[in-house]
Amino acid sequence: MFKNIINGIKAYFGTFKLISKLGLWKYFAIPILISLITGLCFVAIAYFFSDNLGALIARIWVWKWGSETFTTISTGIGFVFILVIGLLLYKHIVMALSAPFMSPVSEKVEMHLLGETKHVHRNTSFSQQLSRGIRINVRNLFKELLFMIPLIILSFIPVVGIIATILIFLIQAYYVGFGNMDYTMERHFSYKESISFVRKNRGIAIGNGIVFVLMLFVPVIGFIITLPISVVAASTETVKILKEKGFVELQNPSEEISKIEE
């Protein structure tokens, strides 16, 4: 799996060149707008409501001595908690709403890498792509919350908190990579088949998601370019796996395989 994680990360190299070559930037205008608005909303919520949550947490401290210090710490905890949950929600909201715009991008990457194939794709409409994106991301959101909430609590415990924080990061990476891979898989697999496919290739999902999550910490720019390049990176790796596993059959194998290996 470690090798696949590395491959998922390496897939980001050359994405800008591929996006420009295929003229994909025009497809990203609405997703970028969705990403910016959603991201700024969650940052604002974290900023304005961290004090309220901090005050609520501070009630645990019933003693007068050290109350001010504990209140300050509680405010910080409140900010981190809202930011983490906000980041979690942000990813899935953006990926779900962007599905109809990212699927064509994924399809163009696949056509570039494979050319004409004998595989018959599932033809889906705008509304079907949006519905699938919402279904996948709502499912992933609840799965993620199931793991995240206990880990967030454990993250405040010394030593154990380090392990919990690493797990939080990897879980977020896995599910965001899952969403990015599904833009390609929705043309090939049903909902249940996609879940099974990602489980068998979870390293690629984690590698793709690691870069995605890290890039979100780059102010403003992270919200603008993260989704476009992560979708292209995920698409290239997913297409490679589909070819290697025999899910697609090429019309001109020798000619197209070289594109995948570039």
TrEMBL record:
InterPro entries hit by this protein: CysZ-like, CysZ/EI24
Entry membrane topology: Multi-pass membrane protein
TM region positions: 27-49, 69-90, 145-175, 210-234
Annotated GO MF terms: high-affinity sulfate:proton symporter activity
Subcellular location: Membrane
GO BP annotations listed: cysteine biosynthetic process; sulfate assimilation
Domain of life: Bacteria
Gene Ontology cellular-component terms listed: plasma membrane
Keywords associated with the record: Amino-acid biosynthesis, Cell inner membrane, Cell membrane, Membrane, Sulfate transport, Transmembrane, Transmembrane helix, Transport
Keyword GTP-binding: no
Record-given protein name: Sulfate transporter CysZ
Organism, as annotated: Aquimarina muelleri
Lineage: Bacteria, Pseudomonadati, Bacteroidota, Flavobacteriia, Flavobacteriales
Gene name for this UniProt entry: cysZ
